[in-house]
Amino acid sequence: MVVASLLLALLLFNRSQTPALAQDPDPSNVYLPLIIKPPVVLCRFGIAAVSGLPGYNTDLGPLKVGAFIDWGTEPARSLPPEVDYIHVISVRGDSFDDTDRAAQAAALAAANPGDYWQVGNEPDTSYYGGNGITQDNITAETYAHRFRVIAEAIKNADPTAKIGFGSIVQPTPIRLRYLDRAWTALLIETDSYAKTNSLVDFWSIHSFILNEIPGQWGTGIPKGFEDDYSDAVAITNFADTYSISLFQERILAMRRWMRDRGQREKALWITEFGSLFPPVDQPGGPNNVNVPDSVTANFMVQTFNYLNTATSSSLGLPSDGNRLVQRWFWYSLNDHRYYFGGSLYDPDDGGAITPVGNKFIQYVTPLTPEMNCKP
């Protein structure tokens, strides 16, 4: 009886309140349904850009990219709020003061809560890039130590930060051995698999297709492997640099490596990939190899088709429908077209869109953004 009386009282109270709410002239008292704004970007698609060149500040809207990387700790331009900026902290150099670098990383993390951080950029290469982009060129053991110092500082300052490990040039046999050394060294540094695992939120690689034979064109061998490079990859057929089958094989190799080390549950990002050889000659003379825009555009579409659909029930990320790759960053938004193929905007033509740029927009325009697909 008591329960019945309470239910009746509540029913009468609610009925008595309904007309008052409906007739209340104060709009602040009107409770509107929750409206979820649909996404406007493709959160899996990213773009790599070169600051300081025309085209860097171009409108990202038509590209629909959900992430932006320029190898800096802060963007040199304003970005739309829906576009994630990937902070890159270099670990290059002969000197590295643990205390100073940890303090710098902590300050950056505290100022950018919840952001993404890539620690290091191509630590496995002895070649340095132009346009202010630097490869780190350190041993695997040195990379592991510097990663730990910076990652621990970031996590202590901001537990919501997401940190990427690796960023090797390409997932080839010799570079996966470099990664193995780095991972093993990190386990030794922390003396705990759980601790090591907690410092890595996603795995970052680059995936150009480069020659590795010392003294030849390409990326050389990792530091510390000068007497141990029998498995270095030789690329003598330049068409292999835009081979979709080689591209696919390497992604599978990386995912297999991750699975075998208990890292299958982590996201895999390709933070730099594209077409190596330029479509136009460099100032002052012809290039040894040029690749037409049409070939680069076709390769780009093939990679996008693969990355946007590739799954594996034994290798993919289970929480992401077993997809192999969670985010990928095309190179580039605006590098010189006489250095690389793949530029969407030409810095030497006032930032004008290129044929590859037109193809990029044509590809992404009909794609529907996903809800909650960020790793």
Describe the structure.
- With 375 residues, the chain is α/β, with parallel strands linked by helices.
- The chain is 32% helix and 14% strand.
- The chain has helices at residues 2-23, 98-111, 140-157, 173-190, 193-199, 244-260, 293-307, 355-364, and strands spanning 42-48, 65-69, 84-89, 116-119, 162-168, 202-206, 267-274, 327-331, 345-346, 352-353.
- Strands 1-2-3-4-5-6-7-8 form an eight-stranded parallel beta barrel.
- α6 links the parallel β6 (202-206) and β7 (267-274).
- α2 (98-111) packs across α3 (140-157), α3 crosses α4 (173-190) and α7 (293-307) packs parallel to α8 (355-364).
- The protein is globular.
Q: Strand sequence of the main sheet, in spatial order?
A: 1-2-3-4-5-6-7-8
Main sheet overview: 8 strands, parallel, barrel
Q: What is the SS-derived class? A: alpha/beta
Q: List the total number of helices.
A: 8
Average pLDDT reading:
90
What proportion strand? 5-15%
